[in-house]
Write a sequence for this structure.
């Protein structure tokens, strides 16, 4: 028996270009969603796509976010995907730095998301709709790099 909830697919860029992700999505049960893992492999080395989850329907300024990326509307909130790959140590620093911005509650960052994924040493964000989250995440805008100092 296959546990559909925890099924993992590892796809190459060519797999995605050749429609494998689309085929997986078409075969997906309405109860399940596909999430994009932060963990990627580049020439055998492990890297991470910086990812953050926000709470609430308003995106404010993101002064702690010092890297370019995209903002995705996920239904009732937003997701961030950084455009610069990070090694494991850099990813941990990124997540811990953003965790500090959740206290006191500010910038609408989801503290639980950051804490849970720091423990797992990787993150993921939903990229397809599902029964309990029927909204298809979609591109909302670009986030430009903000440099400190």
């Amino acid at each position: 028996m296959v546990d559909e909830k925890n099924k993992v697919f590892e796809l190459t860029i060519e797999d995605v270009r050749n429609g494998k992700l689309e085929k997986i999505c078409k075969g997906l049960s309405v109860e399940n969603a596909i999430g994009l893992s932060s963990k990627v492999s580049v020439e055998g080395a492990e890297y991470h796509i910086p990812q953050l989850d926000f709470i609430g329907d308003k995106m404010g300024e993101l002064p702690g976010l010092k890297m370019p990326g995209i903002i995705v509307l996920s239904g009732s909130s937003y997701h961030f995907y950084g455009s610069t790959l990070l090694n494991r140590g850099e990813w941990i620093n990124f997540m811990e730095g953003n965790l500090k911005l959740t206290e006191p509650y500010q910038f609408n960052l989801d503290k639980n998301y950051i804490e849970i994924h720091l423990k797992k040493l990787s993150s993921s964000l939903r990229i397809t709709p599902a029964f309990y989250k029927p909204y298809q995440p979609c591109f909302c805008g670009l986030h430009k790099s903000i440099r400190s100092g």
Summary: Residues 7 and 34 are 9 Å apart (CA to CA).
